[in-house]
Design goal:
This protein has helices spanning about 5-15, 20-45, 55-75, 85-105, 110-135. By secondary structure, the chain is mainly α. α2 (about 20-45) runs antiparallel to α5.
Length: about 140
């Protein structure tokens, strides 16, 4: 029978793979945001491909991998996102981004609501990206104030 690794050794294995996990997280974030932008534009143009099952499942898969990479990074760095202001801001915006994304792609009752939600979701994504790059809860908005 194979003995499980002690917790410290699991943690050290995570730390050894930090750069790969971070690279995956960044690539997945860009892929996820790009796919949302394309799906949203297609949906607003009336193209049915935006809501087809293979495209939706691809989006779910990418977002699940992105969340997994984020959790691995938090574990490797031993960070509590509720104690780090820029991570807390990013998580709050993530919730807003998801709500706006569902309004833009599916739940918006009128075309005007879908368009507004689409552009607001893109702005949320760009803000989350800038928060992550700058490690500042205000992100790029800091430079506009």
């Amino acid at each position: 029978m194979i003995e499980p690794l002690p917790l410290r050794e699991h943690y050290m294995a995570l730390v050894e793979h930090y750069l790969a996990i971070k690279s995956a997280h960044i690539g997945l974030a860009i892929t996820s945001g790009s796919l949302f932008a394309l799906r949203g534009a297609a949906r607003l143009a009336g193209a049915s491909i935006a809501m087809r099952a293979p495209v939706r499942y691809l989006s779910y898969t990418i977002d699940t991998a992105l969340l997994t990479a984020a959790i691995l990074l938090l574990t490797a760095l031993r960070l509590n996102p509720f104690e780090v202001p820029w991570l807390m801001a990013k998580l709050g915006l993530l919730v807003v981004y998801v709500v706006l994304g569902t309004l833009a792609l599916k739940r918006g009752r009128t075309p005007a609501i879908r368009v507004a939600a689409y552009f607001a979701a893109l702005l949320c994504f760009i803000t989350m990206y800038s928060i992550a790059r700058l490690h500042d809860p205000a992100g790029f908005w800091r430079y506009l104030m």
